[in-house]
């Protein structure tokens, strides 16, 4: 379970505009085990910055993150052992094959070789990676790189999974496959959080949706609860009302 409490992050102004950028402003939500939680918001809403604070890459200016009862600021190492992260920059090593990329992370987590091999086989089957598993990742398509980065993030079988825009740039079939995979992770009882700027994406997949705009949580709940909060029967109308724009409505 991941709890975000009153998170705030400001960046100094750069260039001509010296005003600081308030990227995240009092963001709070709980992502439960056995559920998929979606962070939905338009470009620049603060999703990536929020996720970076959740997965210990960036310290919040105020507020805190608690993962499975552990305060991230107090014991980031322990938290990281129970997190699988797909960052916004996928960053696969291009000289290595997909399998070597995955193995490397398994080794960093101190896993024995046979456990790495077994887990890789399971992930490669679930993500339909068998065709390219032993190819060097240089020249990989965006979907192949994303799948490699997801498998690498999950090699150590983490209880909590955080994915930044996992379906970005993926084709319809790959997206369908990935959705099924995320549902499996949820059904295994894991806590899954992902960000997206596409309403249909989160509506199709998430048990809970946290709607973020201009660094703030403007609404959260199930799709039914969001419709109710917005006073709209149509989900699309509800999102437009909550976010205040039509951005992100069309995939
Ligand atoms: N390192 C940084 N330095 C300065 N400003 C930043 C930095 N990181 C993020 N920002 C600003 O903070 C705001 C939130 O950015 P963030 O990347 O969190 O949004 P997002 O919701 O993930 O957007 P997108 O969907 O476009 O990826 C934006 O205005 C962005 O320009």
Automatic annotation (TrEMBL):
Superkingdom of this protein's organism:
Bacteria
- Keywords assigned: ATP-binding, Nodulation, Nucleotide-binding, Transport
Q: Which PROSITE patterns match?
A: ABC_TRANSPORTER_2 (PS50893)
List residues of the ABC transporter domain. 2-239
The protein's name in its UniProt record: ATP-binding cassette domain-containing protein
Q: Name one Pfam family in it.
A: ABC_tran
Q: Does the keyword Repeat apply?
A: no
Name the InterPro entries on file: AAA+_ATPase (IPR003593), ABC_transporter-like_ATP-bd (IPR003439), ABC_transporter_ATP-binding (IPR050763), P-loop_NTPase (IPR027417)
